[in-house]
Design a protein that fits this description.
It is an enzyme of class 2 (transferase). Helices cover 33% and strands 19% of the residues. By secondary structure, it is an alpha+beta fold. It has 2 domains: 76 residues, Arc Repressor Mutant, subunit A, CATH 1.10.10; 81 residues, Alpha-Beta Barrel (ADP-ribosylation fold). It has a 3-stranded antiparallel sheet with strand order 1-3-2. A hairpin with a 5-residue loop joins strand 2 and strand 3. The longest helix has 17 residues. The mean pLDDT is 95.
Length: 180
């Protein structure tokens, strides 16, 4: 499978498993898991075709590790980034002292005044390194990397979660914890 086909399937999976499963009439359980056979059948009915081997390749080679299978590969889900109500069953964890948030330069005045909101997502996403945050920020315009004092947030009672694909999650970041 070439990179263009992989990207097409990955974008489709992001839409279906993170935002709009109803697009193909797919049911996700409370933890965001979908039956792989149902996903493949309902995708094909909607003229999106892929084999189980291709699906496996997309999951295994996705550079952001957006998706995961259960142990016997009968179920699949997105690791984070949902706009729909799912419980990923993540346990609160202590974050490192500092994490990073990549955004576009145009967003900086609002962020420095109002903080970082999750908006339509379930959480605010933070990166453990500046390179990843830069890549995130570039998707939205000229990137700016913000340093977040997550150790101080944690000491102040704010909860953090660590997703299976290495993204730190929290509900809101007050501007007082943000450095440009």
């Amino acid at each position: 499978m070439n990179e263009i086909e992989k990207k097409k399937i990955s974008k489709f999976l992001s839409l279906i498993l993170r935002h709009q499963p109803e697009t193909i009439n797919l049911e996700l359980d409370e933890n965001g898991w979908a039956n792989v056979n149902d996903l493949m059948k309902k995708s094909a009915k909607n003229k999106i075709y892929f084999t189980s081997e291709e699906l496996d390749e997309v999951v295994e080679t996705n550079n952001k590790k957006r998706f995961a299978f259960n142990e016997d590969k009968t179920k699949i889900r997105a690791n984070q980034g949902h706009s729909i109500d799912v419980d990923l069953a993540l346990k609160p964890q202590q974050p490192p002292e500092f994490l990073y948030h990549g955004t576009a330069e145009i967003n900086i005045p609002s962020i420095l005044e109002n903080g970082i909101e999750k908006r339509s997502r379930r959480h605010v996403h933070l990166s453990g390194d500046k390179e990843t945050a830069t890549n995130v920020g570039m998707r939205h315009g000229k990137p700016v990397i913000l340093t977040i004092r997550t150790g101080a947030m944690f000491k102040d009672g704010i909860e953090f979660y660590f997703s299976d694909n290495g993204v730190w999650l929290t509900d809101f970041i007050d501007a007082k914890y943000i450095s440009k």
